[in-house]
Here is the input.
Amino acid sequence: MIPLVPIVIGALATIGIGSAVASFIYGELTAEQKILQKEMQDDLASLERDRQNRLQKILEQFEIDESTFLESRDERIVSARKQYFADRQAQSERHIERYITLAHEQIKITEGIRKEIEEGLNRLRTLRRTQKTILRQEAMEHLERELNEAKNKAYGYVQYLKQYEKQLRYRRSQVEEEDLLFSLKLPEDYPYIGKLLFFKKNLLEESLLQHHSRHFISIKYDATDKELLQPLDDEAVVPVIVTEFNRTTYSYDLSIGKGSLKHIAINQSKIGVEAMVKEHTEKKLILLDYKGVTLKLHRKNLENPRKVPPIGAKLRVYPTNWDFALYHPVFVTENYQDSLKSFQFDTLPIVFSAQGTEEFITFLEENGFSNEADEWKIGPIDETSSLIKLQLGDKLIFAVRFIEGARSYFYFEGMLPLEDSFKPEDVFVVMDAEFEMVEEQDIELLSESAYEHMLDLSIMLFKEFKIQQQLNASMEGLSFFTKWTEVTEKLVQYLSKGKEVICDLSETAHSYRLPNAPLFAHEYELLNAEEVRQRLTDLELTGMVEFIVEVNKNQYMSVEFDETVQNLRIYTEASSLVIPTSQLKVYVKNFCYPEIQQLNALNTFRSGQLVNGQLQSYTLNSKNIESQKAIVEEINFKNERLTENLAQKEAVEQALQEENIYLVQGPPGTGKTTVIRELMAQYLERYPSARILIVSQANVAIDNVLKGFGKQYEDQMIRCGNVDKIDSQLTFISFDTKYNAYVEKIAQKEEIGPQAEFLTKWKSLIGCGQDRANPIMGELLVKNHQIVGATCLGLMQRKIGLDRVEFDLVIIDEAGKALPAELLIPLNKAKKVVLIGDHKQLPPVVHPALYDTEKIELENRSYCVDDLFATSLFKRLYENCPDTNKQMLNTQYRMPAVIGSMISKFFYEGQLLNGQGTEERPTKYFNRHLNILDLSDEMKYRESTKDSAVTNVYEAQLVAKLVKQVRAKLPMQEKIAVICPYRGQMRCIREALRKEGVDWTQGNIAVNTIDAYQGDEAELVIFCMTRSLRKTPYFSDEARLNVALSRVKNDLLIIGSLRYLQSYGESHILHKIAQYITDHGAILKEEDVLEGELALIEEA
Here is the structure.
């Protein structure tokens, strides 16, 4: 438990609340309570020793053991036994009365605390009326919620002590020593009104859930909105709030809806919830419903206040005002930025002693520190210390103490080593602020506003620390998904900014109040109206179009053009508006469908609405995975070759047996597709009516599985996705083909006879004569097929209706390339899931805007970039998963043995074996399988970084000539792949091929980046290194190198500089790869390759 009292004691002092009450509010014992606790523990330990000593003397007196003493009928022993237990009971009676007296004292103290809290609340309400700033108001609102919760908590503690006394008196003859020791703070499992608790769904379904606590105390609960449990799995962990004590049933009423709202949205206010519009009031309020809880939204807090949503519309909203127990409706906003107000601090003042000043400045000078643009992280040092840790970027860490009093402030305590940096799982807050150094002798010069500033900061820090602490305790691993939700939310905000229209505005605006909305319109004349009209025409905008402007980074305001595009209207709550520039960028508002679906999947997962609730716990932390095996009869493999590969065989057997989750690591060429097909066939044989979803981040992976699955299943297969991205061999089973065929069949039916009216309605419902498919019909079509293939994001296409379909088995291929949210889309719908991927290859592709500080501001950017974005969810799951639920495929069949051994040695710790046929495989063009065209001495072989694109023109021209030469000699069915690390070089090579007269799009030639070519293969691969000068982490990334070198089926040619590879140093993997090529491959010269006679210049 993190000691939080010192952080906010100054704030409580402003309303007359002392440290004893503060300790109670924040669940920490006072010094007196710690002494009392020790005395109670020592007393009961002494009582136990006394009883044992007395018993031991009796046993020694009669020379018997304890069993004989308890069972003997000897009169002397019986008499001694009666006396022993009579004395023991008398001792218990004295201790029971003593501890009841102590409990009464604690009740009296707690009732005094409750009274002090009530008085403090009255003073706080008076104080709040004088606060002017939003930050001050928010800090005071939070303090009021804390005090109201503490008041109920105090009442709950009194009830706990009364129940303790009642049970002691009722069961006094059964009381043991451990039953006497009561808690000096409210036990975690004891309820009070407003408390957030967590129960499994199956427990909440009971008419009265009975929970047994210590001291024989039994507590009954009843969920009043059990209908919300219906879509949840039995294993789902459900947050609930205690709403009231029911005196009829003597049970506590629980609300599932309010519990979900508090846990998902209020405790994580940057995330928001999706709520449905249910009513519009006369006071320009919109009432929304979230799981039976009423939310209130002012029209001015709509994202577009002029566009009022109809009843039944769903909005994503963020809480702005609420009471701790959610007695009253929660006020919300549709504007994401309104949830970010808490940490908009300009400065962070720290007081230094003379010695501290010297230590701090010496550190800065010795380390040449000047990275003041980084963000601050603030959090407790650990669970025992009262010190606070501050970290700037990744180079500066120091400790401060919060000095409490009427004028509270942060005081520098000393520098900390870099190894004490915050870890992602730690409790901390990220904020942007300018560091202000205040010397101790100048503290009196600090303004009153500076003290208020630090007081506000302390309150908001406490709020965040406490919430994070509760979240970490309630659901291990949730912070990872919460952070991804925040990141995705910001990405959606950024991507809503579409194409731009440059507007030159008049200096002044005509401002007026709108009659039907609490807004002002500011109408500016467009000085370049003709250009704007032309731009809007060129954009070919159709349908309902909205426009926005960016007023601050990632903060947008709604605007519109008048009918003649002569004027631009900007809408604000303020009666006046100042625009710092006369030229304004107006953006078309985008609807970024894929990212919104990812956000929905993250929120579904976090709220526990999975088909299989156990998968939430397992995905949060794969260490929680437990093997649960179904009984499977002996398997007759459809593909008999599987029996010759033990790893493939075991992967199929174990994945078939496991009832919830199984993971397979598939290095390059190890037969992942073979395993998937066999698993599907075996599963359908055992469960003939099962519905299977095969899903991947890439279309080609799904197509490869379905193409070779077998004709007997064709009628039961449906391939969902864009037809132009589906393999032509599968067009006949595509969703569009089957949907259109059905619609055409129905359209041809004549609307006559008794069913004419029904047929007319049905034609309208399924979209006869329309371009858009009906999602209800799409859902029915999908449900009528047992085998569904789709990409992760294709699952959420509205027309297909897959978001409403559940699957008995979900197989996710290429799982290592999928973002967490992309994996969650199918995982949320699975009764059982098998994930197949390879975390030794490239991680998922993250949207480039998330790396750009100019485009998106990220809290804790270093963690996002170095950990969140760099590590796939599949890797997190696989590395922590118990061995019972995972398998590595360890035999590769793609690469010639010399290359397979290289891949195994450098990327798979030597565990990857070469399969049959890899040793004797013939070459296709070169004399050796492994070749490098060494251009170390070629002065023209140099990379250029002009216009931020990495290119090497010399390499591109050489490759173009070589590909032309090779293509002329190799059969057309044998593929040539040219891969390189950089997009700029890819474009350069394609252009060079065009100039050589080679159409790479038609000649079975692939020219792509390494990242884009993952998952593909070719008979002959040319790996263009491009660089020969600058060493970079990107080029030397092991996952990227693994992919680059493992695409080949026959001949691999690396074009580059051996000297460059060796420059990384002997311990580096690139140096080791260079040495391996020298020892086991061929080193070629340029003239030999292009002349066609491939004489080896150097060969080991």
